[in-house]
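Example record

The entry below shows one chain as it appears in the dataset: sequence first, then structure tokens.
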Amino acid sequence: MLTAPMIDSRHFRDVMGHLPTAVVAITGLEAGTGRPAGLVVGTFQSLSLDPPLVTFSVARSSSSWPKLRPSSRFSASVLAAGQHDICRALSTKHGDKFAAVDWRYSDHGTPHIRHAHAWIDCEVTHEVEGGDHVIVIAGVARLTPGAGAPLLFHRGQLHGLF
């Protein structure tokens, strides 16, 4: 087993912040109520072409993932440049996250954020423990490209691609 040196978590976060990531809204329906639930991740990526799989990680302390996880079905809306307000709304810990978010039901039965850069409808296949996070692996049911440029997170700030 690898013995890791002591690395300060703030320093780790700062250095890893140099890697730009897409801002993706993970949305589904809350178990029991059927209300939309969601969270924002910066770790969404493709994992496999055959079969088509995606992955993202979510903090164990998340209060949002447990709300939508029981259905095993979710949509990933890749936020577009300019959708900063949606990122902030879905990142909040209190209140109705979807009150000011323009969304619609997808054919998959999950919320799609309107005007997103792309939409990927998924079914959870595995969850793997990863330190203070859970790594989610999901099969892709359908995907649709949008338009424009993606919203990116880099060095602690939201940016458009251009």
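Notes for this example: The domain at 21-145 is CATH 2.30.110.10 (Pnp Oxidase; Chain A). The longest strand covers residues 118-130.
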